[in-house]
């Protein structure tokens, strides 16, 4: 007891709360931090852990998620001087830090009970919410405060407890809960089979489910029993970061098959029946000519010549008949017109009409102005 811890950051109302929990008794401590820089988190972890860890004993191990600030403190010398070391969870494991995530959920519920309207949290409100959280009765019949201090939280009298009994009871409860958890996660009882993966294979990960984009591809660089190391393969780039995952958590990328046309070899073409064999002649157009070849006189497959159009159709009448033979309107020689029909002579083609000629209609005054003397202009 007092050796294994878990830590995480709670982001709420533009505030950052560092949540720190002991794994055996679930005793929780909190602290408001300014930012998520590794220096700020290092000071916060020392401030919360130095009063709970043993003064003379093994180093306190703090479980964290692979955030950049926590990853930078893995081998920090200042933490090692205070007998504190960090354990970073696997990146591709969705349940990498369950103790800290559960602590954050419980702290959010306590803050909601104190401030139903929400908003920023003051240090006083955070301390009261943390005290209420530690006073809640757990499944073992005691609160976190009673298990940590071994004293009754109402009378402050000593409670006869042993650390080994608490640890053993907690372990038995987790073993009993495992079948129910497996049934919930896999209702049909089907376990994932470990695929045969070798170095150089491209794989997908089940945990990379996303509705807005496709899965990332990974290249297998190392195989170690039921585990393998993969590196992200994006386009033509192979990333430097290596992830350690189980074989059952990944599956192979389906190979891309390119369809290629099949052509029989010489032996197969000779054995085939000519009536049933494959036609290997090049494609032709409607005239029987190959598409890629031009017609030539030697081949004897020239296109048929265009039909000759009579000159009477292709040329205008004025170019065929002399001027004296072309009938004109207004002449007596034009048959088929009665005498009372006035024939308007056609304008001479040499004389062009006036451009933008003004109209010559007669202009009259309106009836309402007939009683007045007016001049039209």
Q: Can you write the helix and strand succession as a string?
A: EEEHEHHEHHHHEEEEEHHH
Into which percentage range does the β-strand content fall?
15-25%
Q: Based on DSSP secondary structure assignment, what is the total number of beta strands?
A: 10
CATH topology of the domain at 4-143: Nucleotidyltransferase, domain 5
CATH class of the domain at 4-143: Alpha Beta
The termini sit apart by 117 Å
Total of helices: 10
Secondary-structure-based class equals alpha+beta
Examine the secondary-structure arrangement and name the CATH architecture of the domain at 4-143: 2-Layer Sandwich
Helix coverage percent of residues? 10-25%
Largest sheet: 5 strands, mixed
- Report mean pLDDT, rounded to a whole number: 81
Rg from alpha-carbon coordinates: 48 Å
**Shape designation:** flat
Which strand order does the major sheet show? 3-2-1-4-5
CATH superfamily of the domain at 4-143: Ribonuclease H-like superfamily/Ribonuclease H
pLDDT < 50 stretches: 329-333
């Amino acid at each position: 007891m007092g050796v294994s811890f878990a830590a995480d950051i709670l982001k709420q109302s533009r505030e950052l709360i560092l949540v720190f929990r002991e794994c055996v008794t679930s005793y929780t401590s909190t602290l408001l931090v300014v930012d998520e820089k590794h220096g700020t988190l290092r000071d916060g972890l020392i401030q919360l852990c130095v009063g709970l860890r043993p003064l003379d004993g093994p180093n306190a191990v703090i479980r964290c998620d692979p955030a950049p600030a926590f990853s930078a403190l893995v081998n920090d010398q200042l933490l090692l001087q205070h007998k504190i070391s960090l354990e970073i969870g696997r990146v591709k494991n969705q349940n990498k830090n369950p103790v800290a995530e559960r602590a954050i959920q419980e702290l959010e519920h306590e803050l909601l009970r104190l401030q139903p309207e929400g908003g920023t949290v003051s240090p006083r409100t955070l301390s009261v919410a943390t005290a209420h959280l530690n006073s809640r009765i757990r499944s073992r019949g005691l609160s976190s405060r009673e298990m940590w201090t071994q004293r009754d939280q109402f009378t402050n009298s000593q409670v006869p407890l042993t650390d080994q009994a608490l640890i053993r009871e907690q372990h038995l409860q987790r073993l009993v809960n495992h079948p129910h958890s497996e049934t919930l996660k896999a209702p049909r009882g089907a376990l994932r089979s470990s695929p045969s993966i070798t170095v150089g294979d491209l794989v997908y990960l089940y945990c990379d489910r996303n509705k807005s984009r496709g899965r990332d591809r990974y290249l297998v660089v190392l195989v170690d029993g039921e585990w393998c190391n993969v590196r992200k393969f994006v386009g033509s780039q192979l990333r430097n970061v290596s992830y350690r995952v189980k074989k059952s958590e990944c599956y192979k990328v389906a190979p891309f098959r390119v369809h290629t046309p099949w052509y029989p070899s010489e032996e197969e073409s000779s054995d085939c029946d000519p009536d049933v064999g494959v036609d290997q002649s090049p494609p032709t157009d409607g005239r029987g000519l190959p598409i890629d070849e031009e017609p030539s006189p030697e081949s004897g497959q020239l296109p048929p010549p265009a039909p000759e159009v009579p000159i009477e159709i292709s040329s205008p009448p004025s170019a065929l008949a002399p001027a004296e033979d072309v009938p004109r309107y207004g002449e007596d020689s034009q048959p088929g017109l009665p005498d009372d029909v006035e024939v308007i002579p056609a304008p001479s083609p040499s004389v062009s009409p006036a451009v933008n000629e003004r109209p010559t209609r007669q202009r009259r005054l309106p009836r309402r102005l007939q009683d007045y003397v007016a001049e039209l202009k």
